[in-house]
Amino acid sequence: MTTFTFARTDNSVVGRWWWTVDRWAVIALTLLIIMGLVLTLAASPAVAERIGVDPFHFVRRQVAFLVPSIAAMFVISLMNVDQVRRLACFAFVLTLAALAATLVIGAEIKGSRRWIGVGSLSVQPSEFVKPAFIVVSGWLLAERQRHPGFPGGILSVLAYLAVVAILLMQPDFGQTLLVSMMWGTQLFVAGLPMVIVFALAGLATVGIVGGYLLLPHVASRIDRFLNPEAGDTYQVDRSMDAFMSGGLWGRGPGEGTVKRILPDAHTDFIFAVAGEEFGMIACLALVLLFAFIVLRLLARLLQETDSFVVYAGTGLVCQFGLQAFINMGVNLHLLPAKGMTLPFISYGGSSMLALAFGMGMLLALSRTRPGLGGYR
């Protein structure tokens, strides 16, 4: 019996990829995807039953989304730094146009226009514009350092304003806040003067206050978070019931009961399903897996000398980690309610494909290259 391995002297495309990619990050992402399939299998049948479709309707759709997502992540991770930059620039122009199109042709759902139809599918452009924007911004900031006369900082600001302006018009305050945090982290890593960093933090605070005062749904979510008696907290209450029901070790696969009445159990509140059926131990393992991926890739970026790779990679890691933190924080009632998927765990085609796009670029940027200490 033989095993399939790559020799270090293998010069094929896949062979070079295997010995230069961060294999521990790949393994961790694979485990995350497997856990996502298990949790989709646990959470989605109850949702399918409520809406009158086949019990495995969402499972089959998730697998259908997962196959092209994994393929895209692998193909993108084969790219070199220049190819990643060009791909991100093209994707940013395309996704920004699609994001703007939601204001005109987007379907209105719960008072927001965030989705556009592509054939029989619905696509959320904001999911794709996030990784594209952060890589383009990283390139602009890096060019600003390499060529002092290049207005990279100003162009980065203009790109940011274009993205958040459209997001606020949809409106999507949560995605606006996430993009702002990603971009702010990138600016901090890029070494902008602290005066500018604090000024931007002040503007962000003004933006949050403005969102509270001008957007009723934002005010309602914050009020309900600070004072549960201020409005309906059904989703968060059921989420907490799920964690309490699961205890330390969980009720067992398929044995959850709260998930049957938990809205969005297969998407925004899938972490609560993990708590009910697999217990706190499994939830901690999931948290540690996310933390490992974030810290592993950040440690890899610390060894990098290319400023573009550092800025773009840090922004992509920030997006991945913050999105997981926000989702889990909402499930545990540590943050105000916000519809945001748990990366590679929650059901959702746009989210899955966009995350694969972003992580593919991150794996490509973090690959070992000549001059970075050999193979890793």
Automatic annotation (TrEMBL):
Keywords: Cell cycle, Cell division, Cell membrane, Cell shape, Cell wall biogenesis/degradation, Glycosyltransferase, Membrane, Peptidoglycan synthesis, Transferase, Transmembrane, Transmembrane helix
Full protein name: Probable peptidoglycan glycosyltransferase FtsW
Broadest EC class assigned to this enzyme: transferase
EC number annotated for this UniProt entry: 2.4.99.28
Superkingdom of this protein's organism: Bacteria
Bilayer topology term: Multi-pass membrane protein
Primary localization class, coarse: membrane
Gene: ftsW
